[in-house]
Amino acid sequence: MAKSVVFIDAEIGVxxxxxxxxxxxxxxxxxxxxxxxxxxxxxxxxxEFVCGHNIIYHDLKYIxxxxxxxxxxxxxxTLYLSPLLFPKRPYHALLKDDKLQTEELNNPVNDCKxxxxxxxxxxxxxxxxxxxxxxxxxxLLYGYPEFTGFFEYLNFKPCNSxxxxxxxxxxxxxxxxKADILPxxxxxxxxxxxxxxxIGADDFYSxxxxxxxxxxxxxxxxxxxxxNTPCAEGCVYCKNALNIHVNLKRIFGYDSFxxxxxxxxxxxxxxxxxxxxxxxxxxxxxxxxxxxFQLPALMAGRAAHGLTVVISPLQSLMKDxxxxxxxxxxxxxxxxxxxxxxxxxxxxxxxxKNGSATLMYISPEQLRSRTIERILVSRNIVRxxxxxxxxxxxxxxxxxxxxxxxxxxxxxxxxxKIAKKPIPVSCFTATAKQxxxxxxxxxxxxxxxxxxxxxxxTATRENLHYTVLYKETDEEKYSALxxxxxxxDCPTIVYVSRTRRTREIAEKLTSDGFxxxxxxxxxxxxxxxxTQEAFSRNEVKVIVATSAFGMxxxxxxVKLVVHYDISSSLEDYVQEAGRAGRDPDMQAxxxxxxxxxxxxxxxxxxxxxxxxxxxxxxxxKAIKDLTKSRTSVCCSPxxxxxxxxxxxxxxxxxxxxxxxxxxxxxxxxxxxxRNMPHVYATxxxxxxxxxxxxxxDQSALxxxxxxKNAKRIIKSLISSRSITDAGNDDAESRVDYLADTLxxxxxxxxxxxxxxxxxxLLADTQDMSAYILASDTEYKSSLILDRFAKLEKFLxxxxxxxxxxFNLKELNELAHAEGIAASSVKSxxxxxxxxxxxxxxxxxxxxxxxxxxxxxxxxxxxxxxxYRLRIDLCRFILDVLxxxxxxxxxxxxxxxxxxxxxxxxxxxxKAMPNMNTSAYEASLSDVEDALxxxxxxxxxxxxxxxxxxxxxxxxxRLITDNRIKYKVDDYRFLxxxxxxxIRQIHIVGEYANLMVRDYDAALQFVxxxxxxxxxxxxxxxxxxxxxKDIDRNITPGKYNRLFGELSDVQYQIINDADSKxxxxxxxxxxxxxxxxxxxxxxxxxxxxxxxxxxxxxTFSRAAATEFKKRLVSLIGNAANFVEIKTFHSYCFDLLxxxxxxxxxxxxxxxxAELIRNGEVEQGKITKSxxxxxxxxxxxxxEFDLVRALMQNNDDMRLIAVxxxxxxxxxFRGSNSRHMRTLIEEYGAVKYEMTENYRSKSAIISLGNAxxxxxxxxxxxxPIEAVESDAGTVIITHHCGKHMEAAVVDQIISTRGNAxxxxxxxxxxxxxxxxxLLTKNRVRAKxxxxxxxxxxxxxxxxxxxxxxxxxxxxxPVISDELWQRAKKQLYDTYAGSTCYEICVNxxxxxxxxxxxxxxxxxxxxxxxxxxxxxxxxxxxxxxxxTIHKAKGREFDSVYMMLNGNTAAADExxxxxxxGMTRAKNExxxxxNTRLFSSFxxxxxxxxxxxxxxxxxxxxxxxxxxxxxxxxxxxxxxxxVLQLRSGAxxxxxxxxxxxxxxxxxxxxxxxxxxxxxxxxxxxxxxYHPYSADIRFIVAWKGEDDTEEIxxxxxxxxxxxxxxxxxxx
Length: 1606
Hints:
- The chain is an alpha/beta fold.
- The strands form eleven sheets. A seven-stranded parallel β-sheet has the order 10-11-9-12-13-8-14, with helices on both faces. Strands 40-41-39-42-43-38-44 form a seven-stranded parallel β-sheet, with helices on both faces.
- The chain is elongated and about 145 Å long.
């Protein structure tokens, strides 16, 4: 053994691939250390062997290339000998995978000494082997360069023995006796030797090192063949190790497999898996699914050292299964999912890496992790198990797009493992119909060329009895539930559909003496475990749960399952009901407490959770926007959601974004990266661990925790010799790999790496990129920074230390008032988002309102200092990066990012004199904060480095043409899934109804559902029209209630889901409002439009309120979340201002401009459907807003309803041509609604004749009366100017109890008629607005708000406070004539705002008009101008048309509007020949030759300009004692009220008013009485306090009448 050996090692440069250093050590311990090749050759000269670790294909390759010839010497490589001689755990202490362990870098002599130690240990290990094994290894390996030198050193030569016989003898009982070993000896001798070494280790936790599997992937096949392929004859080994019955007893302690009604389904599936087959098992609940894959996995782990990967979407179930195995002493299972903390995740991954885990549970999302992929490549994967396999099928009850990635992942993994045979797959599902089974099998055939053998039972659970009890109300349901629990007195599971209900019902049962506990998926994991264990131990008998309960819970004595809410599919119902009677010898009962409305809840939930095609299109558009300048982007799901315009407060929004991206990936639009940050800890600048540790300890940069983390990272890097090129995705220096394996968060690793770079322990790397295009300028970025800096300074000034509530629109208006013109709600939200992710402030939002609560998590002074420092740093960073960009050619800048590093920036900043104007010293983390800030405010596009913490998704665009959209065909899988979900809800409802009528028929129904072809099943049970019913997202009963009584045209409009743009020309009385409300209902219920994606615009708050109220009555509470607003209110929202009827000039124009400039919060303008009411009233600005919304939403649908014949606001810019533009330029489909349901036929005939002369009308057919009754139409022709008396006389003689209205041309005429009606003691109300009057300023309204604000502590008004304020309003103002209006306002607000936000109330009041809240009283005659009456209808209409000739079309349309307000009776008084030519059946003409005097009485309603406002300044207390309606006396220029028995002057008339009175006096009118119409708040521009102002009514009589009465 005295042969001479020189141990050698070479340090090779990572980038230049040249020899940087050489080391060598002889037997006599003399050593060589130099980079000189010639000296190295001289040192090793004369040696018989050179030995080292990984020298054959690494060190010697470079040494021989340097000298230009081979070295004529024997070569021994310890790398290849190690797995052969140290196959058992714990492996040799000097080894970790393929690397020698060291705490010193770049010292080849040290590595030579370690190689020598390893070599001599290998020699000793070889001689410690049994002689047969020594001979086997030599016979198999001699002649291969990796091993020949070793055997020659040992003087070992191959023997002439029969190697096959030697192997059978040496490994008897450890391998299959019938295995044909000869082909392995001939073709795979090296792989066979390594496999035998592992088999001989007698430790099934030991594994083949990853590096060896990469070089010899066939080792896995050899082990599988020898150890995990049962022979037909059944040798001793196979009978023991591969017999499923033996292992069932050995591992789980069971004597036999579970049968299902005598069927050995479990045994058959386990045997198929043991034989290496791929399979699909449809196991009913309680069928023993878990053991079916666990047993083969544990057997394969022990036999083939293999790993089984179980993929499941149910994270809590994974943990339960691992815990259950641990509880019976089986520790080979681990789970890796999102619920683990970093330490638990690292521990689980380490167990998979080192072989101690043979079962690995993961979620589909984890397949995106490069760390997971790396570990799976390094293990012998014997099988993939996919749980909940119905998720592959669009016909399954829970299709998941991320499941479609599984096949691609397995295929890529097989390529990396160079495996010719596919890895077997086992799929499991509890319930599956034939189409689902077919889809699953087709998927794996197509993706992996696997044929899945089917194991499914046709038997039913005979120990379960099913009952459906029909219950009308929740009270009836609960009573029945309580009675069942009392009668049965056994372990019970109660299933409900919503999380909240689990708590409510459990609490109610407990309070009623039936102890119960809730269980739902959102509970704390520890609470779940406690609840499950309490139920298992019978400490509590009743569990009220969502469907999440029962999975993996093997409790055999559950005798009662009650579905308080029926399941959403038969699959789920059978599975959940099947959790009763797990013991087949025990009878159990399953009840459903059913009501058809239960199905509606499922439909609503489906609509809320489904991902519509429009939402995927929005995500695709967002990705296109984010990748304008490059094809890939790193960003967070939340950022994509915000870019797509989604409401970021929606639950599970990140999951929805990921699903949308998966759908785009599946359709080939994008490719999603591997959740892998390209950040590396490379180029260690310390020679060993001792130096690194010393420098970390001496540095002032690190906190104590950071020191510990840095040392662990450095140790890991040194031990793995991580000098790898950072471009290598498999590098062990990658941040995510370090985080996964060391049990740290990525943030901790990145912070430690940056600090070590700063300290000089790691080389700095330019791992950050700034995308600065040639068109970008530093000036532009600086402007953005300055804008946000000013706004942030303002925002910080508003914060209080204990937190405060902000209405974002009010905050924005305040910012504008402070001179920050560029402020917007979008910018405020951006700043709040930044402060939130940095944990500077805590944020909570009040529901869907714009009110947020901000609580500083740092001292406000500290926040201000951080702000100052950050802005300084931002300015510096912009300067540096734009300077670097300037060094690139303009053409390069379009494609190449500006590369930089965090540490480099910081060093430059520190080197600049007087950069810091803050009192604080800047740190590395401050530079990090500044970069994040610049990124989030949009001043720079940054990627890489620490930003990976905030940008978790890497997305690459595959389709770069911006014109290409996500299409209907791409959506077909998801669409089919959602259609199936709808059918499943209908089918489970049919089952419930059938079970009530016929038990056996219901059981047959279930059996047919799972076993028949689906089309045949539908044709059997849903015949004729019912086949259509089950495709609708609504129950047939509700469908008929909503849409059963529509005309043909109305039905066509509501069912048109295909036309992108629709214009409805709706005649008067044609049911426009009804159609719109039902269309909204159809969009929400049938067309899957989510409430936040729907926008309806109207022209008045009253119309918006009416639509909302009708929609609520039609579809329930869901309607409250639909955005129905006036044009102005919506635009105020976009501008971030509180809406009102004042200050509306240019608000629409400004909003449209903001949309086009991209300055609006995206969520406010991202819509799937836009509905416009009274579209004929749009002016140019309003139509421009519509265009802007259409341009922002490529796929948005638009429905515009209006009547060009009723366009009577041309004087303010309205024009019906915009409706025509939608048809002519945008290709809108036109519908005409010409059936009139309002008016009698004669009224319609007159209207048609009158309007026929209008030019360019949109409707091609005349209006048709639905009613045949002619009604009453009388046209009275006058010859005099005054017709008021004639009109009033006719009202008195004809009106009866009908609702009636008098229509005039002018406000003055209306006032004259009001006075005359009042004189004749006819109760009358004027529908008229008052200049300068705001409803918000009304004393009664202010009082009501004051009562609320007095004790309001949150943005939401509690019901108790609301009711108290209403009572106080009644107690104080019940006698006011305005009280009724206030009551109606409050009622309307309640009807449309189930949650009462204080800001919503104020906005509602501000946008409303006084006349919006008049009651429809039959005894009251309403007096109005025609313009004010538009949109209303009355039984009888009296029109006074003084001097009307209708020469212009606008005038004709106005009169037409007035005529069509009438339902039954229309009376027209005119003094022109306007109607003389109309000879129409049913229309009566009368001539009235009497010449009437001017009205004897008239009234004036005074406005602000009519009173001296300063007169009220010292009278606020007095005025507020008065009430609207109180009588006043008038004397000279003053109005008096009586207080305490004396007359008190309460108002003074202005000069303008006195002039008006003098004019009336000249016509013979004198005031005879007055009363208070309104008391309002008012404040002048220079005033500091508001005053109370009286706005009175004045009543006048003509003098002659006064004298006669005297």
